[in-house]
Specification:
The chain is of the alpha+beta class and 390 residues long. It folds into 3 domains: 90 residues, no CATH class; 112 residues, Beta Barrel (Butyryl-CoA Dehydrogenase, subunit A, domain 2); 141 residues, Butyryl-CoA Dehydrogenase, subunit A, domain 3 (Up-down Bundle). It contains 13 helices and 10 strands. Strands 1, 2, 3, 4, 5, 6, 7 and 8 form an 8-stranded mixed β-sheet that branches. A two-stranded antiparallel sheet has the order 9-10. A hairpin with a 6-residue loop joins strand 4 and strand 5. Helix 1 packs parallel to helix 4. It starts with 15 loop residues before the first helix and ends with a helix.
């Protein structure tokens, strides 16, 4: 893999035209849309702002592009999808998460297409692909994060269906979702978990504003269930499939979170290089100073290493291998080095980079979060060590 801040993707010839079309959309039409609506990363979005982006991205062929043709996509490889995720992450767009369907769309639905019945496909998933409905995923609880088996949300049998009671937190896309892919423990058991498709307007289901994360994005909800009834047609897969559905694609998901973060890190590099070239100091520019040159060299080298190992692992996945240890390594290395890049970028920007409203300041906060999100760096180290020492 050749280093380039604007990758040509010569190794992925099938996706090159899509990348160019995507870049044009991100720089042009979507940028204009965000300016017209005065959108920033900490804007409180409502459905009326987001849905036109879902629908337009669908018209252009981006929304759900990773899905197989029978579900309206192009059946992309993991590596091809990663390239597109990197591009949206590097775009600097506020609504980067809505173009491919990360936030409430087909990417959020993930692997549940494989478990859904024809009726569930028609009722829930096809409308998501079309941009008519949105979903969230509800697994985490206040005392059940990395230790998901500590969850206390419970599904109790009631006739052919179940009554669900409990509280889920950090349901990303919850503020504008129509339904949740929700995992609950089956009443009377300690180790049996099932997944349900829960309509968020159901009696007994309340969507509350979630905690606002460090990034300032208003994208989280708490899902509170109080004797909320779900029918037999809302059970996803079989009873006991809950953790398999919730965690079954963990290696793939862990790897596919990395390209978006790499895109953010790439954006930091681009902004920092431009700033160094244009910032006048001591009769020259920041870029003339060897100390700044060395920092930028370190940032670029860390980015290249993180990007290379991520795409190597994705290539292995596409070849039918299971790079589970490598996925832990990629998540760890990308998270730690992306934040190091952001920290160096802020240092080079100086005061201009640390003020609220600076893009560098927002990227710094966003990349700090990734050291915890989708499994903390310590969890990744546990996985690596376990694989090596077993």
């Amino acid at each position: 893999m050749i280093f380039d801040l604007t990758p040509g993707y010569d190794e992925l010839p099938g996706i090159k035209p899509v990348v160019e079309k995507l870049r044009d959309y991100l720089r042009g039409e979507l940028a204009d849309y965000e300016r017209a609506h005065d959108l920033g990363p900490e804007t409180v979005f409502d459905r009326s702002v987001l849905q036109p982006v879902w629908k337009r991205s669908r018209e252009l062929g981006f929304y759900g592009i990773h899905l197989p043709p029978e579900h309206g996509g192009r059946g992309l490889s993991h590596t091809e999808l990663a390239a597109l995720k990197e591009e949206v992450g590097a775009s600097g767009r506020t609504l980067y998460h809505s173009v491919l369907g990360d936030m409430g769309g087909p990417l959020r639905a993930g692997a549940i297409f494989a478990y859904a019945t024809p009726e569930q496909l028609d009722r829930y998933l096809v409308p998501v692909v079309e941009g008519d409905r949105a979903c969230c995923f509800s697994l985490t609880e206040t005392d059940a994060g990395s230790d998901v088996r500590a969850m206390r949300t419970t599904a109790t049998p009631d006739g052919d269906g179940w009554r669900i009671t409990g509280r889920k937190v950090f349901s990303s896309a919850g503020p504008f979702a129509d339904f949740s892919i929700l995992v609950a423990r089956m009443a009377g058991t300690e180790e049996t978990y099932s997944a349900f498709l829960v309509d968020l307007d159901s009696p007994g289901c309340t969507v509350l504003p979630g905690e606002v994360p460090l990034s300032g994005q208003h994208i989280e909800s708490d899902i509170v269930l109080d004797d909320c009834y779900v029918g037999p047609g809302q059970l996803l897969g079989e009873i006991g499939d809950g953790l398999r559905i919730g965690l079954g694609r963990v290696t793939t998901n862990r790897l596919l979170h990395c390209p978006t973060v790499l895109g953010h890190a790439r954006r930091v590099l681009e902004l920092t290089i431009a700033h160094a070239k244009n910032r006048a100091v001591f009769g020259g520019t920041l870029a003339d100073l060897q100390s700044i040159q060395h920092k930028i060299a370190d940032m670029a080298t860390a980015f290249y290493a993180a990007r290379s190992m991520t795409y190597a692992a994705l290539t292995a996945l596409d070849e039918g291998r299971r790079p589970s240890t490598e996925a832990f390594m990629c998540k760890l290395f990308v998270a730690e080095n992306a934040f190091t890049i952001a920290d160096a970028g802020m240092q080079i920007h100086g005061k201009a980079g640390m003020v609220k409203g600076s893009e560098i300041e927002w990227l710094f906060r966003r990349l700090r979060m990734f050291r915890i999100l989708t499994g903390s760096s310590e969890i990744q180290k546990n996985g690596i060590a376990k694989a090596l020492l077993r």
